[in-house]
């Protein structure tokens, strides 16, 4: 499944524009992380786009990713399905034990922090966000309270220090700024 097919599938299951933009943002971070790590950027981006495919259909976090697994079985490689399951490992029990899974866990969280950093600027544009600002906001637990900083720090298990990962995330999201409206 390529990016266009993934977006088409997502649009059939996701109604809220904010959820769609989140999925595009996670995909953008995943693509950039794959490029940095020498992985498959298309596969990683598609995994990021599809990771919340079932979010609006779930009856709570206990179902999240399980419906997506059923929707994606046989349509994408199993390693992508396993990564999507692992991003809700607390409910699915699928361990976060490889690079794709670690990247998705971190990308899911960091995308929210980067977007929050853009939205507090007068321009509300990613082009005006600085990595140093994201790093500073990372340390402020009152800023973007819903962002799990521990999940972002899983980036270190990818072999990327936090600030490098923040830079990768920002670079990736800037490439999709028009789609994100930022």
Q: Layout of SSEs?
A:
Layout: H1 3-11, H2 17-37, H3 41-50, H4 66-72, H5 78-86, H6 89-92, H7 99-119, H8 131-139, H9 149-152, H10 162-175, H11 177-180
Helix pairs in contact: 1-3, 2-3, 2-7, 2-10, 3-5, 4-5, 5-7, 7-10, 8-10
- Can you count the helices? 11
Globular, elongated, flat, extended or rod-shaped: what is the shape?
A: globular
Assign the CATH class. Answer: Mainly Alpha
From the helix content, strand content and strand pairing, which structural class follows? mainly alpha
The biggest sheet, with number of strands, parallel, antiparallel or mixed sense and barrel status, is:
none
Write the element-wise H/E pattern from the N-terminal end onward: HHHHHHHHHHH
CATH architecture: Orthogonal Bundle
Head-to-tail CA distance between termini = 27 Å
Helix fraction?
55-70%
Radius of gyration: 15 Å
Please indicate the count of domains. 1
Q: Would you give the CATH topology?
A: Hypothetical protein af1432
Low-confidence regions: none
Could you tell me the number of beta strands?
0
Q: What is the averaged pLDDT score?
A: 98
Strand composition percent: under 5%
Question: How would you explain this protein's 3D organization?
Answer:
Helix content is 62%, strand content 0%. With 182 residues, it is mainly α. The chain has a single domain, classed as Hypothetical protein af1432 (Orthogonal Bundle). Helix 2 packs antiparallel against helix 3 (41-50).
């Amino acid at each position: 499944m390529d990016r266009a097919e993934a977006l088409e599938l997502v649009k059939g299951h996701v109604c809220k524009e904010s959820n769609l933009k989140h999925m595009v943002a996670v995909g953008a971070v995943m693509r950039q992380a794959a490029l940095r790590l020498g992985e498959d950027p298309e596969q990683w981006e598609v995994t990021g786009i599809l990771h919340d495919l079932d979010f609006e259909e779930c009856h709570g976090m206990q179902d999240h990713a399980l419906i997506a697994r059923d929707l994606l079985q046989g349509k994408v490689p199993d390693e992508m399905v396993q990564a999507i399951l692992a991003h809700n490992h607390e409910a699915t029990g699928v361990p976060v034990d490889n690079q794709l899974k670690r990247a998705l866990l971190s990308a899911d969280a960091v995308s929210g922090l980067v977007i929050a950093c853009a939205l507090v600027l007068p321009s509300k544009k990613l082009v005006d966000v600085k990595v140093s600002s994201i790093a500073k906001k990372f340390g402020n637990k009152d800023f973007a309270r819903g962002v799990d900083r521990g999940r972002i720090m899983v980036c270190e298990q990818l072999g990327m220090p936090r600030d490098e990962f923040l830079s990768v995330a920002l670079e990736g999201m800037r490439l999709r700024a028009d789609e994100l409206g930022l």
